[in-house]
Amino acid sequence: MDYNYPIRHDWSTEEIITVAAFYEAVEKAYETGMLREKLMEKYRAFKKIVPSMAEEKTLFKEFEEESGYACYRIVKAAKEGMDGDMIKGTQR
């Protein structure tokens, strides 16, 4: 990983760790796949810190620009999936 995660400086250390765990889950989904329920658990924790859809969209865009991984596509696949499904992203 040769990039920085998009974070906000007004977040607490715990919030930064939670958001970083979500970004790591997205990376794992692209690289090896991740169980839907584990990914959704990380996303729900992320949403407690970033409840605004506008802020979520901004962070997702910043993360994709840095990493090449699209959070939106992974979250969409997870929301449409069922427990037990392996979520795996494909890069463009």
Features:
single chain; 92 residues; mainly alpha; 4 helices; 2 strands; globular
How would you sum up this structure, described in words?
The chain has 92 residues and is mostly helical. Helices cover 63% and strands 4% of the residues. It contains four helices and two strands. It has helices at 13-31, 36-49, 53-67, 71-80; strands spanning 34-35, 86-87. The chain has a two-stranded antiparallel ribbon. Helix 1 packs antiparallel against helix 2. The longest helix is centred in the first third of the chain and has 19 residues, at 13-31. The radius of gyration is 12 Å and the shape is globular. The model has no long low-confidence stretch (mean pLDDT 94).
Quick recap:
It contains 4 helices and 2 strands, in the order αβαααβ.
